[in-house]
Every structure is written in structure tokens, then in C-alpha cells.
Design goal:
ten-stranded mixed β-sheet; seven-stranded antiparallel β-sheet
Length: about 475
């Protein structure tokens, strides 16, 4: 039988102190019932002897502690799960918000999850096709990987997130085996409406579980939203055997909520005012991605964060980069040019891309063309920068070809819009067509057998004709 306590002593902001408790555990769920029957929820943040510090989800405004009762429920925050969660929209606490019927739970799962035994992890090595050339061709996403997107304020990362959610698929797996769990953290009502409308319009909602936390929702709900999404993903992956892609946007809003809670608890701040345990906290989310030996399902993560002041050394992108296996970086310069998605392929990196490409996964020539495209684009960018400083006359004929290649690469390869879905074969063929701008003698990173098979011809430009 649950105990009720009328010993609420103090409320400061979202924090409440309850005296005389016994048998209460850290992170336990709490219900606070007022005299008029209104019930608010919270969770235990700290235990000190017979005192429990509780954080309120809905805030403390209008709470009358003299006649309120606190009930400790004996468990942490849980998510009700069932196969019917696919196609549904929930709020940040796992409550349906799409007007549909209440979920008939198959079971309840703790949103904090269970640590994965490192010895039980399987190495990520299967290609996930996003339909975006700059990712599939050059920074390949692999099943079980965690690959963040580093964006900035005002950049179109919401459009990119929606595009990946619509288009992503595991090659060879049917639609029934692939699912997307989308967590929108601290977004505006307009952004929430965009995601929900886009998924409904394209039919992607049928294979998607959507968790939406709005900017005016409580900070504690913002902290729970990503964990709700990851718990749903674990159920789909390990109970139902599905390949699950988890997209979380925006991690910066999550970290800001964490800083707000830490300040309310009067904790000693770390870098830029964020709590000293920010690294550990982010790791408890990111490390829930992966493959487990003996399990057919897997969880792949794409967390999206907007870098404050476009600063890659800011604690949020900095710590995220330590934990994850690479990053996709959006460029403000490309965005100004009207290139969509504005993915800057040079500083972007997927550390596991070599494991998910090649014969039987993408195509035999993938690795060689990827390396050649990187090298040619880098030299083309250098030539273009040199032309800005010294003028076109300072460039050799070959430099001009490389500058032409770099311009065509951005316009045709990177720039595909937010509605175009390219197969990996289309992406590789576009790469070969662009490499045709350069003479075969310049393509030193590609084996001769692939040149013989795929090279489209030099089209009379070998002598520098433009």
C-alpha cells in the first residue's frame, strides 16, 4: 500500500521538500494531490535521511502545500508500450496528443533503460540509405551508429530531420522491419505542426513514433522526452526485432533544460554554467544506440543540435563529438548560396563509413569514388579561394578545372533539395559524372578497373578547355 505524506515543508521554484519519508528511492515518481483533487507529478532528485527533494513536472505555481499530500509510487518514470505505438504522436511524458484512443499497454518500461553490456554489442557494419547524397556517398550512416548533425540558429535542420525521417531505410529490409522514432525537444508550435503535417502528408507517420515537447512545456519534461523516445526505440528494436532510427532535435534545448534544473538545485556549475555531469548525462542517451548480439533489431541515432554562436568548441557539440562516431556539419555559407541541404562535407565525418560500404553493401566502387570526390573538392575549394585573392589569371588550366568541379559538385551533388530521394546508385553515378570533368590522369585514388568500368569520358577538356 502506498504511503501518503502531509509533510511538504517548502517549495522553491520547481523544487519541493518533503520531510519524514521512508523507503523512498532516487528518481522515484511522485504524485502531489491538492485539496480540490488536482494531481501534479514529480520525481525524486535527492534523498537525505528522511528528507526527499522532489522536482515538479508542472511547476509549483498555485500549489498550496498546507493541505497537499505527496504519494511516492515506488517506481521511476515509465512508458506504456505496445505495437500500436507506431503511427502515434505523444507529448514529452508519453501521453497521447493526437486525439487517438488511449494506448492499451503490453508492458511498462523504465525510461532510463538498462546499460548494454559492451561484450554483448555487435559491430555496426550495415548501410542505412538516407536518400541524401552528401551523407550516403561521403559520410555514410551505418546501422547501430550514432551520427549527430551540428547546425546553427536559423539553419534548416528541421527540414533535414524531416527528410531523413521520411526517406531513411535499411536496404534489403522491408518497411515492416524499419521504424523511425522522432523526438522534438523544446520546439515551437509551428515547428511541431510542420513535423506532424509533413509526416501525415507523406505517409511516413505509419512507421513513425513521434514525441513532441513544446518550448512552453516544463523543463523537466524536456529532460524526459529523449529518454521516452529511446525507450520506445528499445521496445521496437529488441522486443519486436525492428531496425529503428532515432532522430532527436534539438539537443541544445535539452542541455539548456538540464542547466536550468542544475541551477535550481544550486549545484556548482561547470563550463558555461552547464552542470559538471553534462558529459555523463549525454552519454546515458547516446550510448543506448547500437546492435546487440543475438538480436535482429538495432537502434541508430541521429541527434541534432544547434551550436550556440556556431561554436564547435561549445560544451554541447564538444562533448557530443567525444561520445558519438562523427558529425554532419551544416554550413552557413552554403545555406546563403541556396544549397539544400547545406551539408559541408569537408569537416563532416562518419567514423564508421568504411564499415558500411563496398560490394554487397552499396557498390564496389564506393570507397574509391568517395576518396576521389573528397580530394578533388578540397583542391577545387583551394583553387577558388586562390582566384578570389589573385584573380583567375593566377590559376593554371588544371586549377580552373578543379574550381569548375568544386562549383558543379556543390550545385549537383550536395544541392538536391529537401524532397529528392536518391538511391545510392544514383548518388554514385552523379559522382562519376562530376569526376568526368577531370582527366583520368588526375583520378589517382581510383583503381584502374573501376575507371575502365565507370569513367564517363573526358569530353575534350583534357587541355583545359572550359
Amino acid at each position: 500500500m502506498l504511503k501518503e505524506y502531509r509533510t511538504i515543508r517548502e517549495v522553491v521554484g520547481p523544487l519541493m521538500m518533503v520531510d519524514g519519508v521512508s523507503g523512498v528511492k532516487y528518481d522515484e515518481l511522485v504524485e502531489i494531490e491538492q485539496a480540490n483533487g488536482e494531481i501534479r507529478s514529480g520525481r525524486v532528485l535527492e534523498i537525505d535521511g528522511d528528507k526527499a527533494l522532489v522536482q515538479l513536472f508542472e511547476g509549483s505555481q498555485g500549489l498550496k502545500i498546507s493541505d497537499a499530500r505527496a504519494r511516492f509510487l515506488g517506481h521511476g518514470i515509465q512508458l506504456a508500450v505496445a505495437p500500436d505505438i507506431l503511427g502515434r504522436v505523444f507529448d514529452g511524458m508519453g501521453r497521447p496528443k493526437d486525439g487517438g484512443p488511449a494506448l492499451i499497454a503490453e508492458k511498462y518500461m523504465d525510461i532510463n533503460g538498462s546499460p548494454i553490456n559492451p561484450a554483448a554489442r555487435d559491430y555496426p557494419d550495415e548501410f542505412i540509405q538516407t536518400g541524401i547524397s552528401a551523407i550516403d556517398g561521403l559520410n555514410t550512416l551505418v546501422r547501430g551508429q550514432k551520427l549527430p548533425v551540428f547546425s546553427g540558429s536559423g539553419m534548416p535542420h528541421a527540414d533535414l530531420a524531416a527528410q531523413i525521417a521520411r526517406q531513411a531505410t535499411v536496404r534489403g529490409a522491408g518497411d515492416s522491419q524499419f521504424a523511425v522514432v522522432f523526438a522534438a525537444v523544446g520546439i515551437t508550435f509551428e515547428e511541431a505542426d510542420f513535423f506532424i503535417s509533413d509526416f501525415n502528408r507523406t505517409g511516413a507517420i505509419d512507421r513513425t513514433v513521434l514525441f513532441v515537447n513544446l518550448a512552453n512545456d516544463p523543463a523537466i519534461e524536456r529532460i524526459s522526452t529523449p529518454r521516452m523516445a529511446l525507450t520506445a526505440a528499445e521496445y521496437l528494436a529488441y522486443d519486436l526485432g525492428m531496425h529503428v532510427l532515432v532522430i532527436i532535435t534539438d539537443i541544445t534545448n535539452y542541455a539548456e533544460a538540464l542547466r536550468e534544473v542544475s541551477a535550481a538545485r544550486k549545484e556548482v556549475p561547470g563550463r558555461r554554467g552547464y552542470p559538471g555531469y553534462l558529459y555523463t548525462d549525454l552519454a546515458t542517451m547516446y550510448e543506448r544506440a547500437g546492435r546487440i548480439q543475438g538480436s535482429r533489431g538495432s537502434i541508430t541515432q541521429i541527434p541534432i543540435l544547434s551550436m550556440p554562436e556556431d561554436d564547435k568548441t561549445h560544451p554541447i557539440p564538444d562533448l557530443t563529438g567525444y561520445i558519438t562516431e562523427g558529425q554532419i556539419i551544416l554550413s552557413r555559407d552554403l545555406n546563403r548560396k541556396g544549397i539544400t541541404p547545406p551539408i559541408d562535407v569537408m569537416p563532416s565525418l562518419s567514423r564508421l563509413k568504411d564499415k558500411g560500404i563496398g560490394k554487397g553493401k552499396t557498390r564496389e566502387d564506393h570507397a574509391d569514388t568517395m576518396n576521389q570526390l573528397f580530394a578533388a573538392y578540397a583542391r577545387g575549394k583551394e583553387a577558388a579561394e586562390l582566384a578570389v585573392i589573385l584573380g583567375d589569371a593566377a590559376l593554371t588550366d588544371m586549377d580552373k578545372l578543379y574550381a569548375k568541379f568544386a562549383d558543379a559538385f556543390e550545385r549537383e551533388y550536395v544541392n538536391q533539395g529537401f524532397t529528392t530521394n536518391r538511391s545510392i546508385e544514383e548518388t554514385l553515378d552523379i559522382g562519376w559524372r562530376l569526376l568526368g570533368i577531370l582527366p583520368p590522369s588526375e583520378l589517382r585514388r581510383i583503381r584502374q578497373e573501376y575507371l575502365d568500368k565507370y569513367y564517363p569520358g573526358f569530353n575534350g577538356e583534357e587541355n583545359g578547355e572550359m
